[in-house]
């Protein structure tokens, strides 16, 4: 039976229910100075609002060293009645102090494995996801290092690998590295932010390769997100790839509409525009497969 590793332990993948496939309860980075997500009460409020709208699980993509507050996640999950999946992994170099990178880069694979199998620090919370990041239209040296470590940690733990695509670009390069060079099964890769570069050819190529495609429209209205989301999803469903699509709120700053908006506005529109069956796949069936531990 497939299982997903949540902050309260492993659960049957079929128990995830309605899932926000890409979000952040907590996030801190010098790239967004003064806009940190660091308030436990606000995180609790967003989770409870998500639950009232029928939400059952949230996958937090916040990786190592970016204020993920792993020690708070179990209590928040329990209190709100929402499954939470935590992430290990490493973002782009710009999000870290150079000295911190010097210390951690040589140990990335072991760090990722340890946080999935043993826990994040002394919190007792185990990560169920490895999050890394590409570069604008490519994979640079830092991204290559982190993705290689992620692929090898995946082989040892079964945890899926989620990838931040910079402005939605570089999917082919990411898949070449993870699945070509490192031999990952594409179905264990989740490509994030594809909607920020509404390139239909890139999206179809990634879908044909077998990866999951995560769209996170509400996070930034100045990108081609909500207003092109429907045509992108419709094209992929029509092409037969409805079983590989995911949606997430991607709350990155306090002003992001995020989790509640995902179910309050986007889900009803998806049901009206594409139908209840594709919507159920996006919110329930697809996350259960995308976030399951390989071999579990």
UniProtKB/TrEMBL annotation:
Q: Which domain of life, per UniProt?
A: Bacteria
Residues carrying N6-carboxylysine? 131
Q: Does the keyword tRNA-binding apply?
A: no
Q: Which cofactor does it need?
A: a divalent metal cation
Keyword Lyase listed? The answer is no
Q: How is the cofactor bound?
A: Binds 2 divalent metal cations per subunit.
Give the residues the record marks as binding Zn(2+) 1. Answer: 22, 24, 131, 250
Q: Where does Zn(2+) 2 bind?
A: 131, 164, 193
Keyword list (alphabetical) reads: Hydrolase, Metal-binding
What SUPFAM superfamilies does the record point to?
Answer: Metallo-dependent hydrolases
> What molecular function terms (GO) are annotated for this protein?
hydrolase activity; zinc ion binding
Among PROSITE patterns, the record links this protein to:
PHOSPHOTRIESTERASE_2
InterPro entries reported in the protein's UniProt record? Metal_Hydrolase, Phosphotriesterase
Matches recorded under PANTHER family: PHOSPHOTRIESTERASE-RELATED, PHOSPHOTRIESTERASE-RELATED PROTEIN
What family name appears in the similarity comment? Belongs to the metallo-dependent hydrolases superfamily. Phosphotriesterase family.
The molecule here is called Phosphotriesterase
Q: What organism, scientifically named, is this protein from?
A: Streptomyces nitrosporeus
């Amino acid at each position: 039976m497939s299982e997903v590793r949540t902050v309260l332990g492993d659960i049957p993948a079929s128990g995830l229910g309605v899932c926000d496939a890409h979000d952040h309860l907590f996030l801190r980075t010098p790239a967004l100075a003064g806009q940190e997500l660091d308030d436990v009460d606000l995180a609790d409020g967003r989770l409870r609002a998500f639950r009232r709208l029928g939400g059952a699980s949230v996958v937090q993509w916040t990786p190592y060293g970016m204020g993920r507050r792993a020690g708070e996640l179990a209590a928040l999950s329990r209190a709100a009645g929402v499954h939470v999946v935590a992430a290990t992994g490493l973002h782009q170099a710009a999000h870290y102090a150079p000295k911190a990178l010097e210390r951690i880069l040589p140990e990335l694979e072991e760090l990722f494995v340890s946080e999935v199998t043993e826990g994040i620090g002394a919190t007792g919370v185990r990560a169920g996801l490895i999050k890394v990041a590409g570069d604008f239209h490519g994979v640079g040296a830092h991204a290559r290092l982190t993705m290689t470590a992620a692929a090898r940690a995946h082989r040892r733990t079964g945890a899926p690998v989620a990838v931040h695509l910079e402005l939605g670009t570089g999917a082919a390069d990411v898949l070449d590295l993870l699945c070509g060079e490192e031999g990952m099964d594409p179905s264990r890769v989740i490509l994030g932010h594809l909607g920020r570069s509404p390139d239909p050819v890139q999206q179809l190529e990634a879908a044909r390769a077998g990866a999951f495609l995560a769209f996170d429209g509400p996070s930034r209205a100045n990108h081609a997100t909500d207003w092109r989301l429907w045509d992108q999803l419709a094209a992929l469903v029509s092409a037969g790839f409805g079983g590989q699509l995911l949606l997430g709120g991607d709350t990155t700053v306090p002003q992001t509409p995020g989790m509640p908006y995902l179910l309050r506005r986007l889900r009803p529109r998806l049901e009206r525009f594409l139908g209840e069956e594709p919507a159920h796949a996006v919110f329930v069936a697809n996350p259960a497969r995308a976030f399951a531990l390989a071999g579990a």
